[in-house]
Design brief:
Elements (H helix, E strand, L loop, with lengths): L2 H8 L14 E3 L5 H11 L8 H11 L3 E5 L5 E10 L20 E9 L8 H15 L4 E6 L4 H6 L3 E2 L17 E6 H7 L3
Parallel strand pairs: 4-5
Antiparallel strand pairs: 1-2, 2-3, 3-4, 5-7, 6-7
Helix pairs in contact: 4-6
The structure holds coenzyme A (COA).
């Protein structure tokens, strides 16, 4: 076995990283928005493309829950945008939020996307774990999101469950009829998903 191969076998996969090993995840800032928009346009149909101002808004309100992960050559490979919010009341696509709840209990995952060239490498897993840990540390108890068409299976695999049907205006209809509102208890996700 070459030295290189020995080194490779010594490096644990992401799922086996000892707790305390920092993930390759960092907080986003406004300079990342052009890269983020590039990823967005590479994974979503045009009707789901939010303007940069929406991401400025989320970064201004909840930077703590907005993270990116590096792909090849140091480029942003994926991002997760989330913010404390009201349970059972997902924020609408394209919406600018005025303020966050004073005493939040819930994390709304606004967007998670990984560039097609970086998919299948546990980027989303790392982003999600990092964000959920922060939410748990902050005392939030539930998380939720609107899965765009085709994405629900990913969230089901992560332990989220479809919420009971909610109608507009509580369910933002600009996500489309096939979007699904999913929720999870952070305690359950911690048991089943976070090492
Ligand atoms: C969904 C998405 C974020 C996953 O990103 P990724 O970095 O490829 O995912 P990971 O490599 O971290 O995969 C983690 C696990 O989820 C599973 N997974 C990934 N995509 C999946 C899907 N569409 N359905 C079911 N499971 C999925 C993987 O198999 C993996 O499981 P494993 O660890 O047991 O092998 C990515 O495909 C994407 O950006 N899609 C387009 C944008 C989107 O739909 N985002 C969700 C918006 S609601």
């Amino acid at each position: 076995m070459s030295q290189h191969d020995k080194m490779r076998t010594m490096i644990p996969s992401n799922r086996q990283l000892p707790s305390g090993t920092p993930p390759e995840v960092r907080q986003l800032d406004v300079n990342d928005i052009p890269s983020l928009l590039n990823i967005q346009s590479s994974v979503y149909p045009a009707g789901y493309h939010e303007p940069g101002s929406v991401f400025h808004n989320r970064l201004a309100l909840a930077k703590r829950y907005c993270h990116g992960i590096h792909g090849q050559l140091g480029h942003l490979g994926g991002y997760l945008i989330a913010h404390p919010w009201h349970p059972g009341h997902p924020s609408a696509l394209m919406a600018h939020l005025d303020a966050l709840p004073d005493t939040p209990t819930h994390l709304h995952i606004h967007d998670l996307a990984v560039h097609p060239e970086q998919q299948g490498k546990q980027c989303a897993q790392r982003l999600l774990r990092h964000t959920l840990r922060l939410a748990i540390q902050a005392g939030l108890t539930t998380a939720g999101l609107v899965a765009v068409p085709g994405a629900a299976n990913y969230w089901l695999a992560m332990g989220f469950k479809p919420a009971r049907t909610i109608a507009p205006p509580l369910f933002p209809d600009n996500y489309g009829a096939e979007a699904v509102f999913l929720n999870a208890s952070l305690a359950l996700l911690q048991d089943h998903f976070l090492p």
